[in-house]
Write a structure and sequence with these properties.
The complex is a heterodimer.
Chain A lengths: L1 H39 L5 H5 L12 H33 L3 H15 L2 H13 L7 H26 L2 H9 L4 H30 L2 H4 L19 H9 L4 H34 L1
Chain B lengths: L25 H43 L2 H4 L15 H32 L2 H16 L2 H28 L5 H4 L9 H25 L3 H9 L4 H12 L1 H17 L2 H6 L17 H8 L8 H33 L1
Helix pairs in contact in B: 1-13, 3-7, 3-10, 4-7, 5-7, 7-10, 8-9, 10-13, 12-13
Classes of the chains: A mainly alpha, B mainly alpha.
Chain lengths: 279, 333
């Protein structure tokens, strides 16, 4: 009987340990968020969103970095997301289990987890070195390569969730494949694909490493995509290393903005999925 | 699965009579062909991107390999001084492997514990929200972990945790070397802890996915002969998903290997190897982040940095390839 009690004790102990671990993980998330608010909220003002980084003294804000990030992330999404959706559609609707499709699927998975700093090096080689300088365009390409594999994966997964009978019904009506895909499959999977694209966008918005060697960052307003371009993560990276306390404070403010933005996008897109799943 | 199983080329759909779709007008067939071609092209682009990446990094790093030969991968001498310029990847390779492996030492038990909690222990209605909250840890950008690690965690490590470990463990023979002082806060140990936290949500969700795929009957059979929840987990669920769990762990390793911003903030960026876990170090990614923009086009330094990048590419590729093989073979089989 003591052996039985020992087993029960072990079971209870491990359940407690597992619960404690989960609580610790959630507490760390809360700690990070609390830190961001505690350190970043007091420097948050209207100037943060209206003044560029090179404005004088206490006036300086992060507006040019926020706008630079928005421009590059928007362009990267506009270019890479459709390509990713097409490639994901290829995997689900045409490729099947062919050798080519299997390679694309495998390589896409590798790209999904590949070190993002290597994307930066690659883009430096193809879009910075040949044109003699850092540029917003290079930043857009780098972020596009971040977005592409996420969009491919999400699209394939979502299209596979669409019931096969729907596809077959459309074919049975004599619709050509592109009608079946655009009017039936994409429509049925649209919420899921949109969610995937939003998640990809959120991931790109927070990326720093691919931009260091491509967009490079800037202190002033920049709208010219052929010149180095400011971005919020780059501004945080730069200011967090400054000795001046007001710069570090501004880095925390930037960190707060970007984290809230990314987390809200994540929660919103999960809500979209949950909402459609229930119908 | 589809009616298209007989068609395997971009031209297949163009034939109006070929696949029983004779109702298709010829304009529709043209559009169909063009559309399929676009889908193919998009799929192939994914291959082109990674192929071009590999080729670019390989060619970019070639001058370094020509100059130093195999010595590049083993030498621990990274010296940009103009008169005796010499570059070796040894320090960064060591830093990359040590921080990543140490991160797994912390995160594998923690992730398994949380996966156990989420699949067996937690009340069922609370599992989903808690799982999502853990997932949000993965959504926090890595630069935020870097700042948090540098400004918040490192001082705590320096003032409280590292002195405790140094006092408690550094007198031990051999093992004590790992915990030799001084306590600086930043360094390999703190970096590994934060890397562990960053890969934890990712690994937890994969573990949960694997554990949920264990057929209920097997678990019920084990419960039926009197196993406790923990015993079912360790003797049935984990062994059943073993291959995929190892694969998921390798995926976590792949992430840790290439993580850049956190490491650049926290590791201390010193190009040396130390036996102490509390010492500063450098990884391939942190070395790239800190030095690449100072290297001139065509210089030996830039070539060496690109070769570092190529090395990281090859290591990550192998780790991720093996991981995917293990994960897929189990989840599909």
């Amino acid at each position: 009987m003591s052996r039985y009690k020992r087993r029960l004790f072990k079971d209870n102990a491990m359940q407690v340990v597992a619960t404690v671990l989960a609580v610790i993980a959630l507490a760390l998330l809360a700690w990070i968020l609390v830190t961001l608010f505690a350190k970043g909220a007091h420097s948050l003002s209207i100037n943060t969103f209206t003044q560029p980084m090179d404005a004088q003294g206490a006036l300086s804000g992060l507006a040019n970095a926020v706008v630079g990030s928005l421009i590059m992330v928007a362009l990267a999404t506009a270019i890479a997301a459709p390509i990713g959706v097409m490639a994901g559609t290829y995997l689900s609707e045409i490729g099947g289990n062919s050798k080519l499709a299997q390679s694309v699927r495998f390589i896409n998975d590798v790209l999904l987890s590949a070190p993002s700093i290597l994307i930066g090096l690659f883009v430096y080689n193809i879009a910075v070195k040949p044109f003699g300088g850092f540029s917003g365009i290079a930043g857009v390409i780098a972020l596009g390569i971040v977005i592409l594999p996420v969009a491919v994966r999400a699209t394939e997964d979502m299209l596979r969730l669409v019931p096969g009978s729907l596809r077959e019904a459309a074919f049975a009506l004599g619709a050509p494949q592109f009608k079946v895909i655009t009017d039936v499959m994409w429509r049925a999977a649209s919420a899921g694909i949109m969610t995937g694209v939003l998640l990809a966008l959120a991931r790109a918005a927070g990326e720093t490493a691919p931009l260091i060697f491509s967009a490079f960052g800037a202190q002033a307003w920049t709208f010219n995509l052929t010149k180095p371009m400011a971005s919020l993560p780059l501004a945080i990276y730069q200011y967090a290393q400054e000795p001046a306390q007001d710069k570090v404070d501004l880095a925390w403010t930037g960190a707060l903005i970007i984290t809230l933005g990314v987390l809200l996008l994540n929660i919103a897109s999960r809500a979209v999925i949950a909402g459609t799943g229930r119908k | 699965m589809t009616l298209e199983t007989t068609v395997d080329g971009p031209d297949g759909g163009a034939s109006p009579t070929g696949t029983g779709r004779s109702l298709t007008s010829s304009r529709g067939a043209m559009a169909d062909t063009a559309f399929r071609f676009a889908l193919y092209a998009a799929g192939i682009l994914v291959l082109v991107v990674i192929g071009a990446m590999m080729v670019q990094l390989f060619i970019g790093g070639l001058p370094a390999v020509m100059a130093f030969g195999f010595d590049f991968f083993t030498s621990t001498d990274w010296d940009p001084a103009p008169d005796h310029e010499h570059y070796g990847a040894g320090i960064m390779l060591y830093g990359t492997l040590v921080t990543s492996v140490l991160a797994l030492v912390f995160s594998v038990p923690a992730s398994l514990g949380i996966a156990f909690f989420l699949t067996e222990v937690a009340p069922i209605p609370s599992r989903k929200p808690i799982g999502i909250a853990v997932q949000l840890l993965a959504a926090v950008p890595s630069i935020i972990y870097g700042m948090w690690g540098f400004f918040i965690v490192a001082p705590i490590m320096k003032d409280y945790i590292q002195p405790l470990l140094i006092d408690g463990l550094s007198w031990l023979p051999v093992v004590g070397e790992l915990f030799a002082g001084p306590a600086k806060g930043t360094g390999v140990f703190t970096t590994s802890l934060i890397l562990a936290l960053m890969v934890l949500p990712f690994m937890t969700s994969m573990y949960v996915e694997v554990l949920e795929s264990v057929p209920g009957v097997i678990k019920e059979a084990s419960y039926g002969i009197g196993s406790t929840t923990w015993e079912v987990f360790t003797t049935v669920s984990v062994p059943y998903g073993r291959t995929a769990i190892i694969g998921a762990t390798m995926l976590g390793l792949g992430r840790a290997l290439g993580e850049t911003m956190t490491v650049a903030f926290v590791i201390g960026n010193a190009a040396r190897i130390s036996t102490s876990l509390f010492a500063s170090g450098a990884t391939i990614s942190s070395q790239l982040a800190n030095n690449f923009n100072e290297s001139r086009v065509g210089s030996l330094l830039q070539a060496s940095l690109l070769e570092l990048g190529f090395t990281l590419f090859v290591i990550s590729f192998l780790v991720l390839a093996l991981a995917r093989y293990l994960v897929r073979s189990r989840l599909q089989g």
